Amino acid sequence: MLRIPRVSWLWVVCALVALWLTVICFFIYEGSSAAPADQGARSVGALETAATAAVRARDAAAFQRLFEPGSVGPRYASQYLTRLFARPITGLRLTTEPYQDLRYLVLRGEQGNRTVCSAWTIQRYDARSVLSAVPPLADVCGATASKGDVHGVTA
After folding, report:
1. In this structure, which long-range contacts are made by residues 85-92, counting pairs with CB atoms below 8 Å and at least 24 apart in sequence?
2. N or C end of the chain: smaller count of CB under 10 Å?
3. 130 near 38, Cβ under 8 Å?
4. From the CB of residue 74, how many other CB atoms can be counted at a distance below 10 Å?
5. How far apart are the first and last CA of the chain?
6. Cα separation, 50 vs 70, whole angstroms
7. What are phi and psi of 25, to 5 degrees?
8. Beta partners for residue 109, in sequence order
9. Whether 76 contacts 131, CB under 8 Å
């Protein structure tokens, strides 16, 4: 009669724990493989320069890289730039402005007789300056924006 070798429960448990640790280590490695150097810029000034270049060139990929990972969806920059340039825009400028102890990157321009204004909070992420797409609680654009034009969304 053929005898089936018995495997101790201890070996089964050890194998399952080893498998579990391998899977956890793999996901940690994959999550950290996106280098933080790819996100944002080294300084606030460099962030403003990179954002200005990306918006003027309508480079959605370069603009997307300026945002904090996880604060925007994968197509945020593409959709924003498509909506921003849907109609001709003049006087387009991006500036860094302090307001209520925070710094903001503010985009302003004119579309016909309407003023467009978008503001993003500048934050630190892994020793780099990044943009957050969470709408600021403060009215950074103030009275210069037409009602409904903040963040490029028209009413």
Report:
1. 85/58, 87/111, 87/112, 88/112, 89/116, 92/55, 92/56
2. N
3. no
4. 7
5. 82
6. 20
7. -60, -40
8. 116
9. no
Instruction: Return the structure tokens found at 52.
Output: 């200005």
Report, as an integer, the average pLDDT of 75-96.
93
Residue 16 CA to residue 55 CA, distance in Å, equals 50
Is pLDDT of 150 > 50?
A: no
Decide: pTM greater than 0.70. no
Amino acid at 51: A
Tokens 């307001």 locate to 99
Residues 121 and 75 sit within 8 Å (Cβ to Cβ): no
Looking only at the bridges linking them, the beta strands covering 90-99 and 114-125 are: unpaired
CA pair distance 121, 62, nearest whole angstrom:
18
Q: What angle do CA 146, 152, 153 make, to 5 degrees?
A: 80
The total number of residues shown for the chain amounts to 155
